[in-house]
């Protein structure tokens, strides 16, 4: 867990710096609102992490230990090599998160919780931290179910968790990659330009591009959308709400009509 935390902080710091050097879009929020928005996003993660410490840091790993020890799940049943098991476990967990994300958009009660994430009107590294504690709980329950059903080993789970958090920061970062590089990476992975489409206020756009790490799932299941724009610097982001930048407002959003 210490390794995962160190990697997370390192990636967060790296892309925070890159946002200063490769900024894609100017912050539409004026000072001090722009600082307040970022602090609220960070506070939401800190509150959720404190509230859900056991959920976030122990339960999925305990499930992985048990699944491995008792040979439970699909992967042990297949009898693959260690390397193949780690890779398959990672791919299956990434697919699971794709469907989890899809369900959080399609099921109304889940959307009310996930909507907190979509209220941010500028994508940057702090948007990757902006998830309601209820979503963290539900996500952990889904991960535990997947770990047991697939028989995902500890090494595979750690690889997945580190990659997931790293890509969440990367694909929310307010950076402009060279177009050719972004297009090349997006053929397999989720990039900032790929994911920013998912945060557009138009319904058909934010109901697309659900992938977090691998972009292939959106292409396979036909949920991929291309913005067809040359310049992403003015690409609209975020749903409208008077509560979107308030820590208290974010916590109460799922319970409002």
From TrEMBL:
Residue span, Fatty acid hydroxylase domain: 86-223
GO MF annotations in UniProt: iron ion binding; oxidoreductase activity
Alphabetized InterPro entries for the sequence: Fatty_acid_hydroxylase (IPR006694), Sterol_Desaturase_Related (IPR050307)
TM annotation in the entry: 6-22, 42-62, 74-99
GO cellular component, one term: membrane
Keywords: Membrane, Transmembrane, Transmembrane helix
Cellular compartments annotated: Membrane
Main location: membrane
Signal sequence coordinates: none
PANTHER family: STEROL DESATURASE
The protein, known as: Membrane protein
